[in-house]
Amino acid sequence: MIRIAIPNKGRLHDPTVSLLREAGLPVLEGSTRKLFAKTTDPEITYLFARAADIPEYVQDGAADVGITGLDLINETDAKVEVLLDLKFGAANLVLAVPEDSPISSAEQLEGMRVATVFPNITRKYFDNAGVKIEIIRVSGACEMTPHVGIADAIVDISSSGTTLVTNHLKMIEKVFSSSVYLIANRKSMQKDGKIEQIKTAVESVLRAKGKRYLMMNVPAEYLEQVKKVLPGLAGPTVMKVESDESMLAVHAVVGSDTIFATVGELKAAGARDILVVPIERMMP
Ligand SMILES: Nc1ncnc2c1ncn2[C@@H]1O[C@H](COP(=O)(O)OP(=O)(O)OP(=O)(O)O)[C@@H](O)[C@H]1O
Ligand SMILES: O=P(O)(O)OC[C@H]1O[C@H](OP(=O)(O)OP(=O)(O)O)[C@H](O)[C@@H]1O
Ligand SMILES: [Mg+2]
User: Fold this and answer.
1) Residue 254, φ and ψ in degrees, nearest 5
2) GO: which molecular function terms (predicted)?
3) How far, in Å, CA of 54 to CA of 25, rounded?
4) Which H/E stretch holds residue 125?
5) Which of 159, 160, 166, 170 maximizes ligand 2 atoms within 8 Å of its Cβ, making it the mutation to test the pocket?
6) Which of 110, 128, 149, 190 is 20 to 30 Å from 48 by CA-CA measure?
């Protein structure tokens, strides 16, 4: 039996549940207040937990696998296997000061106070820089601390940057770059090939996200021109169209970021009836 800890609420819950559904491991919830949920595989269960608690749950074996932020994993210094960057929940931990402050680097904070929800990451960062500071540990609303005289600077999460601006703060250094990761308990990794299967399934979804499947008809005389447009991924696959001897069906996988330009070039090269289809999962 494999137990996967996933965020029970907050901003990471919905994207985690979506990714698992796409990977073929849907979270079959009865009610959102439940502690556990099943999936279609009877050997796998979900445990709902606070994102910040998940690294320790996985380290201690309360869960075999977990999905949570790399910042939270580093902050708890959990001894876990970090398996895969899931490419969502991206945010930075930044060092920020009031916008009218003359301070513009970590060095200038020697002997001053820095408020944060991430005391361990902050401590390591300033230790590395050889700068002595006093850490003021808070559990939230960090951005107000410089304005009430509790701290001279903060280390806090920033993604769009709106919260900093709203609170008249400016970033002076980036401390840590985070996104959401798949992690596993080290002992569980040894006992069961199932964790590898879970990783492969999730990885296949991530790989497919950046790709589209292109299908088109190409008159035989234009095939060479069309092949020049299609980038060097596997393929294209070229098939005969049964009803029309001079027509070929061409299929290829292309990067979604280039799809707009590629379709235009294919049209110009003589392709017609072009279909662009999303890919659910890709396994090499
Ligand atoms: N804009 C953001 N603000 C805060 N955390 C973010 C942001 N973007 C991504 N994250 C990541 O989300 C994780 C925190 O998720 P968590 O569920 O604890 O926070 P939350 O959604 O704010 O919920 P809560 O209301 O409990 O604070 C961290 O790993 C963090 O890096
Ligand atoms: O750069 P931004 O896009 O503005 O995001 C960063 C802000 O979002 C988070 O707060 P959240 O809304 O989670 O409130 P909380 O402090 O109560 O957790 C975080 O603590 C920052 O304050
Ligand atoms: Mg929050």
Assistant:
1) -135, 160
2) ATP binding; ATP phosphoribosyltransferase activity; magnesium ion binding
3) 19
4) helix 119-129
5) 159
6) 190
The residue nearest atom 1 of ligand 1, judged by CA position, is 159
Amino acid at 38: K
CA 158 / ligand 2 centre spacing (Å)? 7
Q: Do the strands 113-116 and 44-49 form a parallel or antiparallel pair, or are they unpaired?
A: unpaired
Verify whether ligand 1 is closer than 6 Å to residue 270 (CB atom).
no
Global pTM? Answer: 0.91
Instruction: Name all domains of the chain by residue range, CATH numbers in brackets.
Output: 2-88+179-207 (3.40.190.10), 91-178 (3.40.190.10), 210-278 (3.30.70.120)
The torsion angles phi and psi of 153, rounded to 5 degrees, stand at -150, 170
Give the ligand 1 atom nearest the CA of 179.
31
162 lines ligand 2 (CB under 6 A): yes
Cα–chain center distance at 86: 3
Whether this model's ipTM surpasses 0.90 comes out as: yes
Identify the residue whose C-alpha is closest to ligand 1 atom 5. Answer: 157
In this predicted model, what pLDDT tens digit does every residue of 139-170 receive, in sequence order? 999 999 999 999 999 999 999 999 999 999 99
Q: Are 100 and 147 in contact (CB under 8 A)?
A: no
